[in-house]
From TrEMBL:
This is Putative acetyltransferase. It comes from the Bacteria. One of its GO terms (molecular function) is acyltransferase activity, transferring groups other than amino-acyl groups. InterPro entries: Acyl_CoA_acyltransferase, GNAT_dom, N-acetyltrans/Recomb-assoc. Residues 1-146 form the N-acetyltransferase domain. Keywords: Transferase. The keyword Manganese does not apply. PANTHER family: ACETYLTRANSFERASE, ACETYLTRANSFERASE (GNAT) FAMILY PROTEIN.
Amino acid sequence: MQIREYIPEDFSCLTKILHQAVHNIPTDIYTYEQQNAWAPDSILKQNLHLTKTWVCLMDDTIAGFIDFIPSKGYINYLYTHPDYQRKGIASLLYQKVETEAIRLQIEKLTVDASKVALPFFLHKGFTLERENIVERKGVKMINFTVGKIIV
């Protein structure tokens, strides 16, 4: 596995990973309607070059990515392609962000985690701050704000 910085040529691949990861979630966790509201085909904004974004490569294939907004200490996206899940990719990407945050002397990391991602972040030492009901395209769904003091 190799981590490298995002380049604009990665954009379409990242869009596909996000879409496939969300639409691979069992519908008893997030309904199909919620998945479509959460990850329509055009969810990613083409301003990833304005944030800190890294991709994880496995055999020259992008297997996952993480997007971090240093000014807010906020992890915006962390997705792994369904074919590469449970192989340590998300952990490796998260570690890259935590290392960068420590280097930048960011005191706290925050994430709005899905029901699926919540156990991952709790395992990484985040604590639950609140449950949120968010609305996207008129569809309500639950996520969780979690935080971690790192400095």
